[in-house]
Design goal:
Layout lengths: L7 H30 L18 E10 L2 E13 L5 E15 L2 E12 L5 E12 L2 E11 L4 E4 L3 E4 L3 E5 L1 E5 L4 E12 L9 E11 L4 E12 L2 E12 L6 E15 L19 E13 L6 E15 L5 E13 L5 E16 L2 E13 L4 E5 L6 E5 L2 E5 L1 E5 L5 E11 L18 E11 L4 E12 L2 E11 L5 E13 L7 E7 L1 E5 L4 E12 L2 E12 L6 E14 L2 E11 L4 E5 L3 E4 L3 E4 L2 E5 L4 E5 L7 E4 L3
Antiparallel strand pairs: 1-2, 2-3, 3-4, 4-5, 5-6, 6-7, 6-8, 7-10, 8-9, 9-11, 10-11, 11-12, 12-13, 13-14, 14-15, 15-16, 16-17, 17-18, 18-19, 19-20, 20-21, 20-22, 21-24, 22-23, 23-25, 24-25, 25-26, 26-27, 27-28, 28-29, 29-30, 29-31, 30-32, 31-32, 32-33, 33-34, 34-35, 35-36, 35-37, 36-39, ...
Length: 628
């Protein structure tokens, strides 16, 4: 037998063939293995529309990225359509694990269409996205995988544990759970404190961060709950961390807010609430911030700025209107006001207990417990109150709302008038003319209806003026009392000719309109032209027709001094019309150079400088003519 020789070239060829066979086997095995995770579809050629496409049934597919599950899809059928896109049909479910704050994003629809690179998934036929605790529904939408964003221009609805809404268009980002709704946006929020009264939000566009529980609504924005509502150009809201209640609401641009009281029970006068809690509040401003209590829909605080207008109405028909540049109001858990602050060009008009009053100032505040309305002046506006027949201006005003008492300090100015024809005369000189008062401080007692002025008090009415350190005026009856010294200046012209000034000084003054009488007491001094009268008491009687001075009656150690003459007696009558001073009570006339004369009655004639001394026991009176 012939021995065969081994050929090295043949062995090398066999080795190469085996190696290639093994490599092909590995490639086929790997291909088969990967095909089980993802159905591989032949590359779509331009002629694909003319080819017959196979349909794969009962698809369950996984996509890996960097060794981790990227998404999972289930469907009844899978094929490539005439449009060159991949189609999944029949109860399609697409899951992206951990995309929404660590939780899955699940898409379901009747059909899903996607491209070869899985850049987008179009959901058709009752599409639903579920991510964490939010659910979005639309007839169709598109999910873009790279941006993890959902888009739809079809009517859309979304729901979560407490929030639901609808719109014509929507954009949703799964990574930060941001939802943007556009066109005819409707949002409903059910609070844990009052599930029967959901908060409704409407507008043209809503930008809502579900993970943070905050959102912004623009364009004809409106928020309402029951009869409470607010309109604005923009509304921003924020929920508490547990998303059970609204934490705060910011409104901007022509804000209109209306709130009504849900509790009709009477308030406790000893509580922080006002005696008459408003049944309705209406606010208009450029910007409003509202904060709520944690477990209640009651407002905790309200801040407003920009041409603020606030009206508060009570069930009894009473109301308060306030305008200011800025408002800041704090409430308690029951909705009662704790503090109220208004700043910048403040005006407050109030109708209460049948009376109306207006308050102005630079700063206005109310403390709930004390119920004191505090008003301060600013460079633009002094503190001022007008009520009934008086108007008060000062650096600072304090109005006690429950007692109706009032205090004013710092350059106090007051105007008083008689608004009713049957009311007593305000003035102590001129009758019905307005009376003006200046003082350092003023207090008003609502119970006694009494004004008390202190510190360099100046009063004037027409041309008549009065100076004192302390003055009290009673609105009932018009009585007036001055203490700590008083000085009055009265302009008189009894014959309608040349006017002259009548100056009166004393320790006290009391005015009683009912008796038309002014009473000066203690070191009384009356000066008129060249004459001076001193007495212990002086009574001025006023006429009934025009409340003008008729006579002055002096008593108690009366003394009259005119140039070189000096007369003493017990009583004196000063007649303005006759221009005479008549002294009685054993009068004595003394001339510095000519000695003294005594009689029963002594009369000074101021017009022609005559002095007549009368004696009843003699045949004739002695007349003394004083030369000019």
């Amino acid at each position: 037998m012939k021995k065969q020789r081994i050929r090295p070239a043949l062995i090398f060829k066999v080795f190469i063939a085996l190696f290639m066979l093994a490599a092909v086997s590995l490639i086929i095995q790997n291909f088969v293995s990967r095909s089980r995770l993802k159905p591989r579809v032949p590359v779509v050629e331009t002629e694909i529309a003319e080819q017959k496409v196979e349909t794969t049934e009962e698809i369950h597919h996984f996509q890996l990225r960097r060794g981790k599950l990227d998404y999972e899809v289930r469907a009844a059928r899978h094929y490539i359509g005439d449009d060159g896109l991949y189609h999944l049909e029949g109860d399609v479910q697409l899951k992206f694990p951990g995309r929404a704050d660590g939780e899955d994003v699940v898409l379901t629809a009747g059909e899903i269409v996607h491209d070869r690179e899985n850049a987008f998934f179009r959901m058709l036929g009752g599409a639903v996205l579920a991510a964490k605790d939010i659910r979005i529904e639309a007839e169709s939408f598109e999910y873009q995988t790279e941006e993890e964003r959902l888009l739809t221009d079809r009517p859309v609805k979304f729901t979560s544990e407490r929030i639901s809404g609808s719109a014509k268009e929507a954009v949703y980002r799964a990574t930060n759970q941001r939802l943007i709704l556009r066109n005819e946006v409707r949002l409903s929020f059910t609070t844990a404190s009052d599930p029967s009264r959901p908060v409704q939000i409407e507008g043209n566009e809503l930008d809502y961060l579900h993970s943070q529980g905050s959102g912004t609504i623009r364009g004809d924005a409106r928020i309402h709950a029951g009869e409470n509502f607010a309109d604005a150009s923009l509304i921003q809201f924020e929920l508490f961390s547990n998303k059970e209640n609204l934490r705060k609401v910011l409104m901007q641009g022509d804000v209109h807010l209306v709130t009504t009281s849900q509790d009709s029970s009477p308030s406790d006068p000893n509580s922080e609430e006002q005696a008459a809690r408003p049944e309705r509040r209406e606010l208009r401003a450029r910007k409003v911030m509202i904060r709520a209590w944690h477990n209640s829909q009651e407002i905790r605080s309200l801040e407003a700025e920009g041409k603020c207008y606030l009206r508060q109405d009570t069930a009894g028909g009473e109301f308060i209107e306030t305008t200011a540049d800025r408002l800041d109001i704090q409430f308690n858990h029951k909705g009662g006001m704790r503090t109220f602050h208004a700043r910048g060009h403040v005006n407050m008009a109030e109708q209460r207990e049948g009376e109306s009053r207006t308050v102005r100032g630079g700063v206005l505040s109310i403390e709930g417990k004390k119920q004191i309305l505090h008003v301060e002046s600013s460079e633009e506006s002094r503190a001022r109150i007008r009520a009934g027949d008086y108007e008060i201006e000062a650096d600072v005003l304090d109005i006690m709302l429950n007692s109706r008492n009032l205090e004013a300090a710092g350059e106090v100015n007051v105007i008083m008038t008689s608004q009713k024809a049957e009311a007593p005369a305000v003035g102590f000189f001129g009758g019905t003319d307005a009376i003006f008062v200046k003082a350092e401080e003023m207090r008003y007692s609502g119970k006694n209806r009494r004004f008390m002025f202190t510190g360099d008090v100046k009063v004037w009415q027409g041309k008549e003026t009065m100076l004192t350190q302390e003055m009290t005026i009673f609105r009932e009856g018009g009585n007036m009392v001055c203490r700590e010294g008083v000085e009055t200046h009265i302009t008189v012209n009894p014959k309608g000719e040349e006017e002259y000034d009548l100056e009166i000084r004393a320790d006290t003054l009391e005015y009683k309109p009912s008796s038309r009488r002014l009473t000066y007491s203690g070191d009384v001094i009356v000066k008129v032209e060249a004459s001076e009268l001193k007495a212990d008491e002086l009574i001025i009687r006023l006429s009934e027709e025009d409340n003008k001075i008729q006579t002055l009656l002096a008593s108690g150690d009366v003394e009259v001094i005119r140039e070189l003459y000096r007369a003493e007696g017990q009583k004196a009558v000063f007649n303005l019309e006759k221009e005479t001073i008549q002294l009685s009570g054993n009068p004595v006339l003394t001339h510095q150079q000519k000695g003294r004369v005594q009689g029963d009655k002594l009369t000074f004639y101021l017009s022609d400088d005559r002095i007549i001394v009368e004696n009843k026991g003699r045949e004739r009176s002695e007349t003394v003519i004083k030369k000019s």
